[in-house]
Design goal:
This protein is of the alpha/beta class. It has one domain (2-111). It has helices spanning 18-37, 54-67, 80-93; strands at 2-7, 40-45, 72-76, 97-103, 106-111. The chain has a five-stranded mixed beta sheet with strand order 1-2-3-5-4. The longest helix has 20 residues, at 18-37. The protein starts with a strand and ends with a strand.
Length: 113
């Protein structure tokens, strides 16, 4: 499967709030749907973004995966602290989304089975 990458740094300078996540969400949703239609997997890169918060990730990527029937997203360039907090958020809120490490610095978000 081919991958299509989108760089969040081209969409927003700030990835720190839910509000900034809501502004970025439509572009990510469009990229996700286009990638799936072409038979590609979406890779969302946060490289070059100094701060990415779990609130931003929840408002964008978690929402995107949760709202779609199928598909997953590869995420790269997010710090370990944000990933750990996001894992706790997913556990405590019962959202139907799984997060798993694919390789160093790369994570997969997908709907829970």
């Amino acid at each position: 499967m081919y991958a299509r990458e989108i760089r969040v740094s081209e969409l927003s300078r700030s990835c720190a709030t839910r509000e900034s996540g809501r502004r970025v969400y439509p572009r990510l949703a469009e990229a996700f749907d286009a990638a799936r239609a072409a038979g590609h997997e979406l890779v969302v890169s946060f490289e070059g973004i100094p701060l990415v918060t779990p609130s931003f990730l929840d408002e964008t990527l978690v929402r995107l995966v949760r709202d779609r029937e199928r598909g997953s997203i590869l995420v790269k360039g997010v710090g370990e602290v944000a990933i750990r907090i996001l894992e706790k958020l997913l556990e405590t809120t019962g959202k139907q989304v799984e997060l798993r490490r694919e390789s160093h610095g790369v994570f997969r978000l997908q709907r829970a089975a």
